[in-house]
Amino acid sequence: MTPPSSYNETTVRVKIFVFLSLLGPVLASAAVLKIKVDAPIHPVTSEYVVKSLEKADREGADLVVLTMNTPGGLDTSMRQIIEKIVNSKTPVAAFVGPSGSRAASAGFFIALACDVFAMAPGTSTGAAHPVGVSFTGQSMDKTMEEKVTNDAASYIRTIAEKRGRNVRMAEDAVRKSSSYTEKEALDGGLIDLVAATEEEIVARLDGKTLKRFDGSERTLALLGKPVVDLPMSFRQRFLLTIANPNLAYILLMIGLLGLYFEFSHPGAILPGVLGGICLLLAVFAFQILPINYVGLGLIILAAILFILEVKVQSFGMLAVGGIAAMIIGSLMLIDSPIPELRPGLRFVLPVALGVSLIVIFLLTLVFRAHARRSFSGREGMIGETGTARTDLAPSGKVFVHGELWEAEAEEHVRAGEKVKVIEVLEGLKIKVGKA
Q1: Whole-model pTM over 0.90
Q2: At the N or C end, where does the chain have fewer CB atoms within 10 A?
Q3: What is the arithmetic mean of pLDDT over 382-408?
């Protein structure tokens, strides 16, 4: 027979289990999902937003709040996000916040494509003029720039028209790089509301009827529904960290320096392993960042020249060429007009010069090792001085290095004169000259 205390404890456990079982589906299918993009728009942020919207569609969420603070980013990633937003079953509300944030360039396109466009007080949006560079790092010519601008203008006109927003203001953000405060955007009909927080947006949208991108209508019932944050996964956070252009550049430099050290000092192992890992991580990051392959080629050329300097005696010419190639390649490496997507000049120059100085230091050690005279074996005899014990005409005996040697000389040497070893011959015989 079960004691009363045990019976009560068992009953409580059963009730808790039943309660959690009933509450589980409610928590799993949140009515509102909040996602946050506080970084440039590139493949990592694109993957995060797209997967979050897919999750919202699977769980039947009522609304997704996309909070943004971004300077813009890559056109391809922007279009992937917009394509997912306009085809999503779940309505999406873009929120430029908190105060002090911005949604510029690609961020403006994305926010404009959402079902609801809201901004916090003290924020800005717009400045969506497309800026690009060519394969060699030079700015686009006038014809190409005009074509890209016209394409972006037509794209944003389509989005603004379908969303019922101010087409002229949207197009001015592309053609004239116009930027708007939250008040200007609200007064001009570019955004739907100004709110301080995501919770205020949810409260104000409750009971509202939204016109979707495909023309259908959907009334939101958000009162009392749970709101759940959907952060990046560990993988996405790791990729976002690696995609930092400064870190990617550091990984590239460490990788090249490690491989160089391994080539110049074979058998060290650790520098080669560490360098290989860093180099692979840098290559992975460069798949995310807009890389100028001419700049990357110059950096690789610099590494090759440094390695050749160890193997070939060029009196420093290969090292000088490698340093020049590394500095120029570093400045050209990241091919992006957005400062957040490229390492700063104040960061690149010290790192490139630092790596070059380390290489020069290692090369100096190698040169000194090559120039140092050997003190053992046959080579250790070269340059040693001694005394002729007999006349050398041309052969005789000399006392060198604490030993008596058979020697020959090209000129007559009298007994007692100082001699210097010129060459070690076969058969324990040396060739000497007058010291």
Answers
A1: no
A2: N
A3: 81
